[in-house]
Write a structure and sequence with these properties.
alpha/beta; four-stranded parallel β-sheet; about 30% helix; globular
Length: about 230
């Protein structure tokens, strides 16, 4: 049996996106990568990722970590990297808190350090794109060559922001479409204004070049950003 590695980070989507390049880093070095994630995410990620064997676990923050370990045990994986700090039963939470609970060290650096992968790999983002589905979303949503993609909704409510895009179209993010099928819309946008979210991580790691605005959470636990954003 060849080399294998298991990643413990069942959710959420933004964290998985952040860590996908680390999984590919191991795949490219000859590892079989197993990764238990919420069963509600399985289809979305299997569609675009070929270098990870995703295993479904229950979408329950209180049980998913132990379930993930069990899934990896079933696959005889002994090299396990638990980076799911703050999830109940994660072995990395104590170290995460000791290092400042994400306020003194960016949480993505913390995770990449545990995985023993250079943080610069985060922007080596590789997915299998479906141009037909991306173009379908583009044709449905885009009515103006100049447009902004906007998401002001977060887990605590809606950001109160006065945004002026002039005569341009405003396209509000919805959950009707697979996140990855938004890529053509995002790549051709004039402006992107997002709360800290899975989509903002995708935009950052795909190095999408346009005017970008990022609305931060009150605790400002942001991942490392190397692209130019206006932080609000």
């Amino acid at each position: 049996m060849g080399k294998s590695i298991g990643i413990i980070q069942p959710g959420k989507i933004g964290d998985i996106i952040i860590l996908l390049p680390a999984a590919k880093y191991y795949h490219d070095r000859g590892y079989k990568v197993y990764w238990p994630i919420y069963d509600t995410y399985i289809d979305m990620f299997r569609e675009v990722i070929e270098y990870v064997d995703f295993l479904p676990v229950t979408n329950n923050v209180y049980t998913c970590i132990n379930e993930a370990y069990s899934k990896l045990k079933e696959k005889s994986v002994t090299n396990i990297k638990d980076v799911a700090a703050t999830f109940p039963d994660s072995t990395s939470t104590e170290e995460y808190v000791r290092l400042g609970d994400g306020l003194t060290q960016n949480f993505d650096i913390f995770k990449y350090n545990i995985l023993d992968v250079p943080i610069d790999e985060k922007w080596n983002f590789s997915i299998k794109r479906d141009t037909l589905k991306e173009n379908s979303v583009y044709q449905k949503l885009v009515k103006n060559n100049k447009y902004a993609v906007v998401n002001l909704k977060h887990s605590m409510g809606v950001v109160n922001a006065n945004l002026d895009f002039g005569s341009g179209q405003v396209i509000y993010v919805n959950e009707e479409y697979n996140l990855f099928h938004w890529l053509t819309v995002l790549e051709k946008a004039t402006t992107i204004a997002l709360v800290d979210s899975a989509m903002s991580n995708l935009v950052e790691q795909m190095n999408i070049n346009c005017k970008k605005i990022l609305f931060t959470k009150h605790d400002k636990r942001l991942p490392v950003l190397k692209n130019e954003w206006k932080i609000v």
